[in-house]
Prior knowledge:
- The protein is about 40% helix and about 15% strand.
- The chain has twelve helices and twelve strands.
- It has helices at about 5-20, 40-50, 65-80, 95-105, 125-130, 150-155, 175-195, 255-270, 275-280, 290-310, 330-340, 365-380; strands at about 25-30, 90-95, 115-120, 135-140, 160-165, 200-205, 225-230, 245-250, 320, 345, 345, 355-360.
- Bound molecules: pyridoxal-5'-phosphate.
Amino acid sequence: xxxxxxxxxxxxxxxxxxxxxxxxxxxxxxxxxxxxxxxxxxxxxxxxxxxxxxxxxxxxxxxxxxxxxxxxxxxxxxxxxxxxxxxxxxxxxxxxxxxxxxxxxxxxxxxxxxxxxxxxxxxxxxxxxxxxxxxxxxxxxxxxxxxxxxxxxxxxxxxxxxxxxxxxxxxxxxxxxxxxxxxxxxxxxxxxxxxxxxxxxxxxxxxxxxxxxxxxxxxxxxxxxxxxxxxxxxxxxxxxxxxxxxxxxxxxxxxxxxxxxxxxxxxxxxxxxxxxxxxxxxxxxxxxxxxxxxxxxxxxxxxxxxxxxxxxxxxxxxxxxxxxxxxxxxxxxxxxxxxxxxxxxxxxxxxxxxxxxxxxxxxxxxxxxxxxxxxxxxxxxxxxxxxxx
Length: 389
Ligand SMILES: Cc1ncc(COP(=O)(O)O)c(C=O)c1O
């Protein structure tokens, strides 16, 4: 606990600042908790259910979820990816976090290794640890893409899985088809070398939040031992409702046994099943999203301003985070500088990538606008060169 999460620690420090200065004078860019409301379709479905309750809709159900919901997910995922999924390939879960824990519990033997690319979503390390695994953190290149030679050298006989997250938290980077294809090649080469199976766990809660007309490149086309997991926390702004799913590659030869493992672990880890009410709603919302154009507008606003101030950063292609370099080597000290101007951000060290800071833009425009002043003051203090985006 004392090692704790940076994100949480910043949140606690932010809470103190908010008490002292008033919440509307502190500009909190530290958390990925979207301020957007779910799309109108969500409220329509919710109302329909409240007015015409389904018999038994609050009872226990099969641990994999309602067959109708699994079928709707399979149908839409097939459309999105061009890979044909069946109802039996899908398990409904308590968000992406629940899905990750179910997958890791199912596939890991004690001491098995899981490769995680830095910068990473910090909970990966905790989840791997939860199930007796060992995380092996592998750095990425200047563009936050996997270094394939380092990946190859890091895969050992004990490597059971590689976790990828595209669009990425914290960088906003999207892995291209080429990157995924090369990644798949490395995995197959190492599987052949060790006579093992290496699963590609694709954590995709931001899959539908993608900009500039980009199409989501799916890893499913590049490795048969791919396990996709996602949630509606971000694309439908339902983070508090804990609804997501796992999909196993339909061409994976032992998917039946694997799915049985997921169903068993969903129960025995104590999730039992994904929330019934949400399953009855998201069944009809597989094609719906919050306004991605709104997020793109917020990205453009923040990116243009940061570049103009002289910050160095990769333009995010998806999700709702940015991960600029800190002008100071010590990213914690830099974040403390921002705090002096009542702007809250998270040091890159918390994501295994010191020398950076993460800011979220799933926030009200006012918060983003008001945070600019502090960001500008700190950029001036460290004499960043102003440019135009
Ligand atoms: C990369 C990543 N994976 C997983 C999760 C967990 O998502 P969920 O709320 O669906 O459990 C998050 C949440 O922020 C995330 O950023």
